[in-house]
Structures are given as structure tokens and as C-alpha cells.
Write a structure and sequence with these properties.
The chain has helices at about 50-65, 80-90; strands at about 1-15, 30-40, 70, 100-105, 110-115. The chain is α+β, with helices and mostly antiparallel strands. A five-stranded mixed sheet has the order 3-1-2-4-5. The two termini are about 20 Å apart.
Length: about 130
Amino acid sequence: MQIFKEFVFDAAHMLEFMPKGHPCARLHGHSFRVEVVIDGQPDENGLVMDLGDVEEELKRVRAELDHSYLNEIAGLEQPTLERLTQWIWRRLEGSLGRLSEITIRRDSCREGCTYFGPNGEARPRGRA
């Protein structure tokens, strides 16, 4: 069984490794939507995990990212979607031990990235 919770944040970044003239090489911003999925079996109360506890952890991560310049955050000096999913994973894996996947979407661009953890394997996409 899986549960999930989402959060959104807005941030600016640039990808300095892109060729000169590429739009992503310039300072720009996005609205990001992050979905965090946790695997597990329901406990005696019927919960995989208390979603209120999940929300508190997501608030902590969101506070680090929201309205920031991602390139200035340690570990995000080149903030691609791929690196951003891995960075969020590292922030949450200690507190959300049954973390299963993290998806980041930039809805206005109709693009995103899903990370299944350092030892994870791609699974069929079940949610849009």
C-alpha cells in the first residue's frame, strides 16, 4: 500500500552548464509540485503513517526551498530536476523511513522527474 502527500514551492535557478543562449542558462523561476510517496502496511489503527507527521516533515523541506535561489543551497549548485529529487530524498529519508518515491513536476512546462531512491527501480506510473 502507498500513501502520498504533496507540497508546492516557487524558486529561481539557472543551469550554468547549458550553452550560452539556452533559456535555462539564464536566471529564471518555476513553480514546483512535489509528491512524496511512502510504502507500508497499515498498522493496527489502519494507518501506513500519520499524514500529519508527513506534512510536518514536508513543511521543513519546503521552508528550505520556497522563494529561494536554488543554486545557493548546499548540494544544489546545479539544480536540475534530477538533483532536486535526490536532494529532497536525502532530507526526508531519515524521518520518513519507508520513503518510496519522490516526483517533482513543473506543471507549466508539463515536465517532471521521479526518483525511487539510491537503490530503487522504476515502477509503472500510477498517478497523474
